[in-house]
Amino acid sequence: MSKIPMTKQGADALRTELERLKKVDRPRIVQAIAEAREHGDLKENAEYHAAREQQGFCEGRIQEIEGKLSNAQVIDISQIPESGKVIFGTTVVIINVDTEEEKTYQIVGDDEADVKSNKISINSPIARGLIGKEEGDVAVIITPGGEVEYEIDSVRHL
Strand, helix or coil at 142? Predict the structure, then answer.
């Protein structure tokens, strides 16, 4: 399996979630199952079935996170010298050439992408169009509404 690019912040967030699942959620669910068993007949015990379902989700998420972390290529952008070039992890300010609308995005891994936080996936059309370009370059991004030209105003390593 190939390595999955991930920022240091994204990897830290996954590790924090994994810690919570293992040390808080898992014991709570085990306790809920034990309490539900004490109520008797398991066939018609909704609390027991709900707790078992929660356990399945929790264990599945633990496995998913462990798999992602084991295949992660963690990139700490703050350790890479600034070159003005758009690379994974950089924060890019782009200006729409036609409307002069300014947008700021950080290019992150698939799991970290959150448009509301201005974090876009390395695999998104915008990021693919920006990667490798430098400050002052114009990138042509193919969108559902047609081609849009963006000028790269600045590239920061945060």
Answer: strand
